[in-house]
Fold this protein.
Amino acid sequence: MIKSMTGYGKASAEIPAGRITVEIRTLNSKTADIAIKSSLLPKDKEIEVRKMLQEALVRGTIDVYVTFEPSAESSPHAVNADVFHAYWKSAVKAMDAESVSERTILNEPAAGSVLANAILRLPDVVEVKKTDAITPEAWPVVEKAFVDAVKMLQDYRQREGQALYADVTSRVQKILDLYAQVEALEGERIATVKERILKNLEDLAQKPDPARFEQELIFYLEKYDINEEKVRLRQHCKYFMETIDGEPCPGKKLGFIIQEMGREINTTGSKANHAGIQRLVVQMKDELEKIREQSMNIL
């Protein structure tokens, strides 16, 4: 069964420093365009991760997000006491010294809490210590999170692929059904062309030789014969179904087959010379365009 290139997978890993969360999102693309949007991943593991994603996901726009939630005891945030006290004293000094003092503020818990919270948001008060959360010892657990996220994404792609398969194959059958209606109008088309030619001759007051007229009419109609287009289109539709059923990643090949299907439909339209057939050709083009749009997301 085919797979979609659209997918989403997420998994977490508990490590001594906290929790690592891996998210992978994919969209359609002609190649594997992998973007790791995090600085947490160790450089020596990035190539390994890219290789794993390339092999598992084949192609697509692949965005990888790695986030870290530190545990309470290993929080990288620390208050710079010297900077905090400097801000505190400046704030107290800026107040009316006769009515407010540092002791007064300290004796008013609510006021002291408001001032402290305000100071904690000022620049350089809270420092963030750079820590390497993903240590060599923690890597096996994080690696498993990547594997689990890819598996979830693969399942997502599988479900989307089932919907894509049902849609495009039903439209291929619709094209074949429409072409069957074209065949039903072929006899009417020939009669219409013959009638039009005869009317033009009558308007010109000409009486052609019946045998020669039939010979020329046959030659004329041969230029508008669509039997070859009919055979080729059916063969392309058959090849489309064989490819989508028989190959694990048929997306690119299906694009080429769709081009050939379009060529036969367009040629049929140029040879139609019949209003009813032209309408059917437009409907076939509409179905083919929808197949083309959907196939761009098939892996």
About this structure: The longest strand covers residues 60-70.
